[in-house]
Amino acid sequence: MVDAWERNHSPSFRLNVSNTMRFFLLSLVLAIVPASANPTIVGTIPRKAPPSISAKRAIVVDYMSGRVLYEKNSRERCHVASTQKLLTALCVFDTNVNQSFTITKSDTWVEPTKLGILPGEVYTRRKLVGALLVKSGNDVARALARSVAGSESKFSDVMNRKARSLGMKESNFLNPHGLTATGQYSTARDMAICAREAFKNPAIRGIIKTKGYNFRFSNGRTKYLKNTNRVLKSVNYCNGMKTGTTRASGRCLISSGTLNGRTAIVVVLGATSSTIWRDSERLLRWSLERPAAR
């Protein structure tokens, strides 16, 4: 079966048909689709022109259909920082997430942001995925990668296999956390594919919509983890997803929202600290708050 994304956007599906043929095809579709079918799940485009944004790259996708509602340099390769932790989480959820493992010293050898896990502590993979997506701990990413694949480099192979299986054709991942590495890259379009897959997972959806929670370390100490996604507070129907920032990537954010039965995923890459929240919020509101043209 042809994926909705490819069907709507691959050149091989951009058919130039006559008005007569269009009418015939529409009549055929209407005859096949039951009258009770809900038209809002078929990818819809807001009638109002999209807002102006400052970010270098962006894409807005209808979650249900995969239809692209807006894009700006969406196929341009770039660093995506910690937004790629969504792919890390997907790879972890392909394993036994209830399996426990012990933190090693090498897991903690990484630049901030760090959760502060310590060698000898024991956690389940599921528990650490929560901290991975809310706090964006790079030490957690390293620990999970080692737990799943034996090493960070072997886990990158797991990530790339997963990416290819999802149709992410313009990406190459070298680590689980998104810190800059030569030869590591993705695109806004590929990260939208990743985000759609992550949104399908109920456990991941539950994590990414969390504004904050108390994480309990294995030695009993606790730490409040505040979600780094500010759009969760500024847009009441926002329900995730993941932030990211490095010098090479600029400010990045993948956000999602659900309103009136429609869900949109917004990927903004290469923004600045003064524009990332505004760009993301504008695109999310544009995609869901305005009446849509079918």
Automatic annotation (TrEMBL):
UniProt-annotated binding residues for substrate: K242
One Gene Ontology MF term: serine-type D-Ala-D-Ala carboxypeptidase activity
UniProt KW Protease keyword: yes
Protein name per its UniProtKB record: D-alanyl-D-alanine carboxypeptidase
GO BP terms: cell wall organization; peptidoglycan biosynthetic process; proteolysis; regulation of cell shape
InterPro entries in alphabetical order: Beta-lactam/transpept-like, Peptidase_S11, Peptidase_S11_N
Organism for this UniProt entry: Oceaniferula marina
Keyword check for Ribonucleoprotein: no
Residue ranges constituting the Peptidase S11 D-alanyl-D-alanine carboxypeptidase A N-terminal domain according to the UniProt record: 48-272
Homology family: Belongs to the peptidase S11 family.
A Pfam short name: Peptidase_S11
Keyword field: Carboxypeptidase, Cell shape, Cell wall biogenesis/degradation, Hydrolase, Peptidoglycan synthesis, Protease, Signal
Active site: S82 (acyl-ester intermediate), K85 (proton acceptor), S136
